[in-house]
């Protein structure tokens, strides 16, 4: 999928540069792009938007009609631009890259936390506090439960992974014994 991220980068950078100029622009665009990306990632929407019987105006109206958030003129212009350039299906990658730029600008990062068991709010806050010291960033946690880990947690922040799961420890033991 490197090709899609390459296509998405200029759009995300242009939106980011534009959004930084208004007071709540980053937050508003982040929320809108998240919704647009979610809509564009739906299989039936993808199929409809690639239907050769629809022209650009029909595709634009179809997509805009699926968005729950009221669209500003800038939002509608973005949809029209992406539809006319045959890039509307790249919206999930644009949203992802925009959020990455936004987090970098704010000095924050997304921490994808996979835990073998459900974590309560106190446990998440304690874990995030420790991770913020380790990574030196303000972290936004996204917690999911993954029973395959057996125990412990696996944290991904950007391209860094901290894996303290029982599954990872067993794999390390297996590799040591096999060597």
Describe the structure.
The protein is α+β, with helices and mostly antiparallel strands and about 180 residues long. The chain folds into two domains: about 1-105, N-terminal domain of the delta subunit of the F1F0-ATP synthase (Peroxidase, domain 1); about 105-179, Glutaredoxin, CATH 3.40.30. Helices cover about 60% and strands about 15% of the residues. The protein contains eight helices and four strands. Strands 2-1-3-4 form a four-stranded mixed sheet. Helix 7 links the parallel strand 1 (about 110-115) and strand 2 (about 140-145). Helix 1 crosses helix 6 (about 90-105) and helix 2 (about 25-40) packs antiparallel against helix 6 (about 90-105). The longest helix is centred in the first third of the chain and has 18 residues, at about 1-20. The model has no long low-confidence stretch (mean pLDDT about 90).
């Amino acid at each position: 999928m490197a090709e899609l991220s390459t296509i998405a980068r200029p759009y995300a950078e242009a939106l980011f540069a534009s959004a930084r100029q208004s007071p709540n622009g980053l937050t508003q665009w982040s929320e809108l792009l998240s919704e647009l990306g979610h809509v564009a990632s739906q299989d039936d929407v993808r199929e409809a938007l690639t239907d050769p019987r629809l022209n650009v105006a029909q595709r634009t109206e179809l997509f805009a009609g699926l968005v729950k958030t009221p669209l500003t003129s800038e939002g509608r212009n973005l949809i029209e631009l992406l539809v006319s350039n045959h890039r509307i299906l790249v919206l999930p990658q644009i949203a992802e890259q925009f959020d990455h730029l936004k987090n970098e600008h704010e000095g924050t990062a997304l921490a994808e936390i996979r835990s073998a068991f459900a974590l309560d709010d106190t446990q998440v806050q304690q874990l995030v506090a420790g991770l913020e010291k380790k990574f030196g960033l303000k972290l936004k946690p996204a917690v999911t439960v993954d029973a395959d880990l057996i125990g412990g947690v696996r944290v991904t922040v950007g391209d860094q992974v901290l894996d303290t799961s029982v599954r990872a420890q067993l794999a390390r033991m297996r590799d040591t014994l096999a060597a």
